[in-house]
Amino acid sequence: xxxxxxxxxxxxxxxxxxxxxxxxxxxxxxxxxxxxxxxxxxxxxxxxxxxxxxxxxxxxxxxxxxxxxxxxxxxxxxxxxxxxxxxxxxxxxxxxxxxxxxxxxxxxxxxxxxxxxxxxxxxxxxxxxxxxxxxxxxxxxxxxxxxxxxxxxxxxxxxxxxxxxxxxxxxxxxxxxxxxxxxxxxxxxxxxxxxxxxxxxxxxxxxxxxxxxxxxxxxxxxxxxxxxxxxxxxxxxxxxxxxxxxxxxxxxxxxxxxxxxxxxxxxxxxxxxxxxxxxxxxxxxxxxxxxxxxxxxxxxxxxxxxxxxxxxxxxxxxxxxxxxxxxxxxxxxxxxxxxxxxxxxxxxxxxxxxxxxxxx
Length: 360
Prior knowledge:
Elements: H1 7-22, E1 30-32, H2 46-56, E2 62-65, H3 77-94, E3 97-101, H4 107-125, H5 130-137, E4 139-145, H6 154-165, E5 171-175, H7 177-180, H8 186-195, E6 199-204, H9 210-213, E7 222-225, E8 244-246, H10 254-265, H11 269-289, H12 298-312, H13 332-344
Parallel strand pairs: 1-2, 1-8, 2-3, 3-4, 4-5, 5-6, 6-7, 7-8
Helix pairs in contact: 2-3, 4-5, 4-6, 10-11, 11-12, 11-13, 12-13
């Protein structure tokens, strides 16, 4: 494996400088792979996406769009660019940090899309300098996964991930074995951190947490846990191993999760545990409810069922369930049962953030 001429300490120092440039007030500790909403005829509903972002932006300042929960693996090219256009508009308006998901199973496709994204951001920002364009557009990086396949070696992973890192854009590595069928090993993550100061963020949704628990020196890469449940034990401020979280549940429980993080920062152990247990219990029950849905992934479907109540309040059970990318709507029975779970834990909203608006 090729070593950086900067060395471990040099890369760490350069990374710290880059992070300060990208995040003037510090890297957010709570991130969200926001939901992608669709109209009844299946088009990206930009107005609905924007309303959802406005709803959670007070507590969440970092977004991965599109992530897996955003249907990032399933979007057509036209849908990808439509969603990105909306996300860039809202990032500026709401002063958010946007991590652009380039989720492709083949590294050549990932590189091709990453290069298109870089050119697109430069064009939108009217800036020829990559970093200046990203900062102006409030884009903090490009998120990539390992090449897909059970038989992909660490050397092949390195080659594929390196191709995007060599563009010079800030990059987040996204550990997602549920989709890639493999894991980026701790040694490879540490090696890439040494070689590339522009490797700035690491998200791990594996649930195994092998990279952060390995003790490898990642040179100041900001680490975020993406696996759901038992949040309190994983946050550094509460004695855990991660700098922050990038959670699908932040689509619905941004207030509770940000309260948990604030409680950990202030040493309020009881508050941290309460928020953690409540969100864990709700999401576990709703995850079970959506297991019967044959389309979409469980994270997207569960969060769409819950968000339906936050969007429409008491009217949620009277309206059609949210549309999935696959073209079906969540069944009314699942919506009704989701409402019962939220009420059971005292999390059913009294009003919706869409007011009297109906699904389009």
